Amino acid sequence: MAILEQEERNEYLCVHEDTVRKVLKEMPPEEDLYDLAELFKVFGDSTRIKILYALFAAELCVGDIAQLLGMSQTAVSHQLRVLRTNKLVKGRKEGKIVFYSLSDDHVRTIIDQGMEHVDE
Amino acid sequence: MAILEQEERNEYLCVHEDTVRKVLKEMPPEEDLYDLAELFKVFGDSTRIKILYALFAAELCVGDIAQLLGMSQTAVSHQLRVLRTNKLVKGRKEGKIVFYSLSDDHVRTIIDQGMEHVDE
DNA sequence: GTATCATATGAATAGATGTTCAAATGATTG
DNA sequence: CAATCATTTGAACATCTATTCATATGATAC
Lengths: 120, 120
What we know:
The structure is a homodimer of 120-residue chains.
Chain A: H1 2-9, H2 17-26, H3 30-43, H4 46-57, E1 60-61, H5 62-69, H6 73-85, E2 89-94, E3 97-102, H7 105-119
Antiparallel strand pairs in A: 1-3, 2-3
The structure holds a DNA duplex (30 and 30 nucleotides).
């Protein structure tokens, strides 16, 4: 009885074992996949995308971005922190003002590639 | 007094108006930026990234993927729905089994580009 | 028809995430 | 030094999201 109940609860999966084994060999390490997802997560917010697009055009301070997006300065600052932590933007301090710009061209390439897909 | 209080509450933003105007002109339409963020959001989950990577290697049914990732069949099915809705994967029905594969090569390009950034 | 298997769906729940508010830092000016 | 400005930080709150559980659909086999 107990065994039958256990079997009832069991999930019978349709599995093609050979294929699964083959695919498993070709999978990158867990950590890389996790990091990749984390990277895309950063791009997966419209506020951050807007900030990055704005920085395509010019170096901007926090206030500029807030004005541009019609958002509070704090909200922008929080998002800039996310972008900074993930090395997508960098800040240059000039007196009290911090001017932000893109870290490298990789950022632009990734976004452009995504935009191509969206444009279809 | 009332006016002063209002001013106290006011957020004084540091804004370079000329720059902001220039950048504003070069910004893509709101909707495109929103769609782009939505696209990246789909890539921004490690389960979905793993599924996509698995589909790089072979056409797989739901059970295969569940086994491969060590996840429940339902969890995988829910994520496949997200990927299907966003046209990143497509399903081919053969009897009771649904075989999933990538919709197009764009998916691979975007992920590869992201992985390059992570690998640094 | 019923039974079984593969997948899908809906509701519920727990955890993550973005914005706001209040307060703190850091730099300039008088 | 105090006052002001630009930015940052932390906590609170509301919303979103991924997984689980239970159930439903859809297809094959008996």
